[in-house]
Specification:
572 residues, alpha+beta, Rossmann fold, Jelly Rolls, 2 domains, 7-stranded antiparallel beta sheet, 20% helix
Length: 572
């Protein structure tokens, strides 16, 4: 029998039903807590699902929302504002995924539970909720990041009682969640193990999918191949995980899968999105380039009623998650309660333009009034609308030598800058960097960051781009200013050969005001600390290059290194 009690928060009394058991089709059960008002009546339900532990999510009733860089910011407190949800007359259900928290079953691999798709468990849970006396049969979902990804996996299964979803701050391309441009990102480790401001997964029964599927011989070959990568073997934590994966099975599986493919694609929410025909509201904050890209791809793949909000900087939402609830309730009041509040009469896309700090609206992304134009890298670290007229012999390349972080704390950074803008100059869309580079090793990282720099020197990040040199191949989706890399194979670089690398710049919207400059930085490792990184969790860094590498960046008449950026043609 479930435990019932009453809690008071903000003057509101809340009925709490603890540890309800929802049966799944394979015989295991998921554990869930339910929060609702004291009136004994059925209500619409907002469901939150993750492996982070339903008990952790109850901190929402006690802990005021925290923003980075607060040390109390916990990236796993993502299920939503329980008291507010109850006050708005919804029931809030928070459930543990199989293999985590109080639920049964086994969690295997990344976004895969015991051979059962997580969406299948979500289907069974949603239909079980619909039968409960406290539910009126109208169900939506709530929560950011992992919780948001779960919403898409659930909706793709088409449970009859799931009427709409509201996904904010989610991760949708699972390869790009783990490898940005082919460069390993450490945040998945933090979210799973509990590091640097994250509580991590509430593990009860977890297995490595690679250990389940590969023979001991195949597994040993995969581990040996990863340890042959200088970037991996020179990072002690990664070597340790490959030797001793116990209790870090999910991170182990990600390290072993450095290329895109079945492991990431079979449950990629963007691949599943065309199956979704219920209304979907997608939101993401600027400054989180990889998830901005995925959020837009998700929005474009959806087939039913949909909206997209591209929200202001800074990148990380508060924890416990309390933001954008006004938008969420307006959405669910319309789709779950049948209230005609005009939410679908407004433009489909709302984008906040940094710089002027104004909103722009349209029916698509990007807006129609966009023209891709180049800004060329020039001598003396300048960016210009005109290309370099001189040949290589007169326009010597810029360069830097990066020693591995095993022997230095110095991250070398090259930068180029425009002259101050004379009038407000707006850019909205994706971008590309075409870089002609010679390196003296067989691989390196290209990390690009674009800044809006004010006359007083203060600056804000505009967008980023990442590319591992061995992942330079482009695929047939590539268009001007909008490159795509398949990341399905690694092709070593010929040392000493000048190659053109086309780096995808994640979507952005920025208006450079008069007196401001656009500045682009290039490095092969991330700066260890700066104004942007302080807004991210401590583990939000990328695996540094383990090779001692000289980089020569050519920007002459033959090698026109340049940015290709989405200038808007309307007045800002």
């Amino acid at each position: 029998m479930a435990d019932f009690k009453t809690w008071e928060a903000g003057g509101e009394k809340i009925v709490i039903r603890k540890d309800l058991r929802a049966p799944m089709r394979d015989g295991i059960s998921l554990a869930a807590d339910v929060y609702h008002g004291v009136d004994d009546k059925p209500r619409p339900v907002l469901l939150a699902m993750s492996p982070y532990g339903k008990e952790l999510q109850s901190q929402s009733l006690m802990l005021p929302p925290q923003r980075r860089p607060s040390p109390l910011w916990d990236g796993c407190l993502e299920a939503g504002d329980i008291a507010r949800i109850v006050k708005e007359d919804y029931a809030h259900v928070i459930a543990d995924l199989r293999g985590s928290g109080a639920s049964g079953g086994v969690m295997v691999g990344n976004y895969n539970a015991g051979g059962v798709p997580l969406g299948q468990d979500a289907y069974d849970l949603i239909e079980w909720i619909a039968e409960q006396p406290w539910c009126d049969g109208n169900i939506g979902m709530v929560g950011v990041s992992y919780f948001a990804s779960m919403q898409v996996l659930a909706a793709a299964e088409r449970p009859p009682h799931l009427k709409a979803i509201f996904v904010s701050g989610g991760h949708y391309d699972f390869y790009e969640t783990s490898y940005h441009g082919g460069i390993l990102w450490f945040m998945p480790r933090a979210a799973r193990e509990g590091r640097g401001g994250d509580s991590g997964i509430a593990v009860t029964n977890i297995k490595s999918r690679m250990q389940e599927e590969l023979s001991p011989e195949e597994l040993a070959e995969r581990v040996e191949a990863r340890l042959a990568d200088p970037d991996v073997v020179k990072w002690p934590n990664l070597a340790h995980v490959l030797y001793y994966p116990k209790n870090r099975e999910l991170w182990y599986d990600i390290i072993l899968n450095e290329l895109d493919g079945e492991y990431y694609e079979e449950r990629n929410p963007i691949t599943l999105a065309p199956k979704i025909d219920i209304p979907v509201y997608v939101q993401i904050n600027w400054g989180r380039g990889w998830t901005v890209d995925g959020s837009i791809e998700l929005f474009e793949a959806l087939r039913g009623p949909k909206k997209l909000d591209l929200l202001p900087y800074p990148p990380m939402q508060e924890r416990p998650f309390h933001e954008v609830h006004d938008d969420m309730f307006r959405w669910y009041d319309h789709w779950l309660k049948g209230i005609d509040n005009g939410v679908m009469d407004e433009p489909a896309v709302n984008a906040f333009v940094e710089g002027t700090r104004q909103w722009t609206t349209s029916e698509q992304w990007p807006p129609n009034e966009v023209e891709y134009r180049p800004l060329y890298l020039r001598p003396r670290r300048k960016l210009s609308v005109k290309p370099e007229p001189l040949g290589t012999e007169f326009a010597a390349p810029d360069g830097f030598y990066q020693a591995p972080l095993t022997v230095t704390d110095q991250v070398e950074v090259l930068s180029w800058s425009t002259e101050p803008f004379h009038e407000t100059t707006e850019m909205i869309g994706t971008g590309a960097a075409h870089l002609f580079v010679e390196i003296d090793t067989d691989d390196t990282n290209f990390i690009l960051r674009l800044w809006d720099t004010a006359p007083d020197g203060k600056r804000q990040l505009v967008t980023t781009g990442y590319l591992k040199a061995s992942h330079r191949e482009l695929d047939d989706r590539t268009t001007e200013g909008n490159p795509y890399h398949p990341h399905t194979r690694s092709v070593p670089v010929d040392p000493g050969k000048i190659e053109e690398y086309v780096v995808r710049l994640y979507p952005f919207a920025n208006a450079f005001k008069p007196g401001h400059r656009l500045e682009v930085e290039l490095s092969c490792n991330e700066p260890l600390a700066d104004t942007h990184n302080s807004l991210l969790p401590p583990e939000a860094m990328h695996l540094p290059s383990g090779r001692a590498t000289s980089h020569k960046v050519y920007r002459d008449a033959t090698h026109q290194s340049r940015l290709v950026l989405p200038f808007t043609t309307r007045k800002a």
